[in-house]
Amino acid sequence: xxxxxxxxxxxxxxxxxxxxxxxxxxxxxxxxxxxxxxxxxxxxxxxxxxxxxxxxxxxxxxxxxxxxxxxxxxxxx
Length: 77
Prior knowledge:
Blueprint: E1 7-10, E2 13-16, H1 34-37, H2 49-59, H3 63-66
Antiparallel strand pairs: 1-2
């Protein structure tokens, strides 16, 4: 089974935004163009990986509303 976990690469190191739920295994690393992926440089904004993971967990309850039909109109504002 494949599982995608976002992370950040800098100075030869990969840091995951959440801890993988396995002890060991093979991985494939795919580099995303930040403009295409819509990602934000959190470090440049003073947000650590831990802070981002905690924020993601707190906001998870809103995910269904954000992804509801018609909500994409707010993305264009």
